[in-house]
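Researcher: We're teaching a course module on how sequence relates to structure. For the next exercise, students receive a sequence and then see the predicted structure as tokens, so they can try to spot secondary structure elements on their own. Here is the exercise chain.
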Amino acid sequence: MHDITDLESRGVPAVFVASTEFIQAAETQANALGVDPAAVFVPHPIQDRTDDELVALANDALEHILAALTTN
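Model: And here is the predicted structure for the students to work with:
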């Protein structure tokens, strides 16, 4: 969250990607920092996925990531 906030303060479009397990934690931290960063959440869990499953998750998220980077 701090990295995204820093990038945005420098004028660099940014979005963070996390699994759905971290939605509430991200909201809590964003509120504490007073920011509203672009975020894309992917299905949880991540660690036990195969390489092919991770590629599929990334492909599924790509459109949302690009939209978050290019929409104000």
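Model: If you want an answer key for the exercise: The longest strand covers residues 15-19. Residues 21 and 44 are 6 Å apart (CA to CA).
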